[in-house]
């Protein structure tokens, strides 16, 4: 059964430190939703409040339309996959997956049937009798997922479950995880600081900063239409560029990505190259404008320090003095 998860005004402070401030969020049934943000911004705390491991100072949490704010974890019908997977090292794979069902006193035959069906789905049938400390990180991730799935929860909560995998395995694991979620059709609430994960996995992404959701949207909207300067700086391989808005008021600026710029010898703007960095198919040029503003431009042609490049801005966003995006003039 799919579920809708709602957070209404969730607030949590640790002394003077704000980890959640009036968080309002609604997840659609069957959605893969990602909370993205730098380390230490409260992402995992938000997840633990949904799980019932921590209690909010204010606000309410609803699952399937039922308030669960003050219910214990075992009464919320959620499953959580932790960063370190939290597998039991003294048990083999089969017993790890079976553990939550045994705690609920399921019949042995039903437990076995559920485990073998899930193991087949996740491709771990051949390691069911293996000790969990003798299987790979990718296999441990699938075992942790199997243990979560076997309970048939309303919502899956995942706290950076791929962060302990190396880059090559992580790439494959992302694809597998998205496929599993789509096959299950269940609601996934996923926390990460990795933008590539958010981009690859999410239907929508919420960007958390200082306990507040700066923007909630599909990832491509975060990149192309960041609602605040902070989102523009955080999302993307390199930060956005900002220059004074010649048509705006005091403190207003235009923001543009390096790939929204066209290098053109007849371009109206110029900058001096300080550093050139090759990143695969493109070169990123760290430049200084005649007014002393640092910007980053993208070029398919190599340029060296000291060169002057001319360019035009093909597209841009406008930001007010408060750092929030303003409607573009018609």
Quickly describe the structure:
The chain is an alpha+beta fold. Helix content is 26%, strand content 32%. Helix 2 (93-103) packs parallel to helix 4 and helix 3 crosses helix 4 (137-149).
Overview of this structure, please?
The chain starts with a strand and ends with a strand. The protein is α+β, with helices and mostly antiparallel strands. The longest helix has 18 residues, at 167-184. The protein has a 6-stranded mixed beta sheet with strand order 6-7-8-3-9-10, with helices on both faces. It has helices at 43-51, 93-103, 108-122, 137-149, 167-184, 195-201, 219-224, 229-234, and strands spanning 5-14, 17-27, 32-36, 58-63, 66-67, 78-81, 155-159, 187-192, 204-209, 212-217, 241-244, 253-256, 261-263, 269-279, 282-288, 294-299, 308-313, 317-319, 325-326. Helix 2 (93-103) runs parallel beside helix 4 (137-149).
């Amino acid at each position: 059964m799919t579920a809708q998860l709602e957070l209404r005004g969730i607030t949590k402070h640790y002394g003077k430190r704000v980890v959640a401030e009036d968080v309002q969020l609604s997840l659609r049934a069957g959605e893969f939703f990602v909370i993205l943000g730098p380390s230490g911004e409260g992402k995992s705390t938000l997840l633990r409040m949904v799980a019932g491991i921590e209690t909010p100072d204010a606000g309410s949490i609803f699952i399937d339309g039922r308030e669960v704010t003050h219910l214990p974890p075992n009464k919320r019908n959620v499953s959580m996959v932790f960063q370190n997977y939290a597998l039991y090292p003294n048990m083999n794979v089969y017993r790890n997956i079976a553990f939550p069902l045994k705690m609920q006193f399921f019949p042995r035959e039903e437990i076995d049937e559920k485990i073998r069906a899930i193991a087949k789905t996740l491709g771990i049938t051949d390691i069911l009798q293996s000790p969990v400390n003798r299987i790979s990180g990718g296999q441990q991730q699938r075992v942790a997922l199997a243990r979560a799935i076997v309970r048939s929860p309303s919502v899956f909560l995942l706290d950076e479950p791929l962060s302990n995998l190396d880059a090559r395995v992580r790439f494959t694991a992302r694809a597998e995880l998205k496929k599993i979620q789509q096959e299950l059709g269940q609601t996934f609430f996923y926390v990460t600081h990795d933008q590539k994960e958010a981009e690859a996995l999410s239907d929508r992404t919420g960007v958390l900063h200082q306990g507040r959701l700066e923007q909630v949207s599909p990832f491509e909207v975060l990149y192309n239409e960041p609602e605040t300067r902070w989102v523009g700086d955080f999302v993307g391989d390199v930060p956005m560029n900002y220059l004074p808005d010649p048509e705006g008021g005091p403190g207003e600026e235009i923001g543009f990505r390096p790939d929204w710029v066209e290098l053109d010898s007849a371009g109206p703007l110029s900058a001096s190259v300080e550093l050139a960095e090759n990143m695969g198919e493109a070169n990123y040029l760290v430049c200084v404008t005649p007014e002393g503003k640092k910007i980053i431009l993208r070029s398919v042609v190599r340029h060296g320090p000291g060169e002057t490049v001319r360019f035009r801005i093909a597209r841009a966003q406008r930001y007010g003095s408060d750092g929030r995006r303003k409607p573009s003039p018609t």
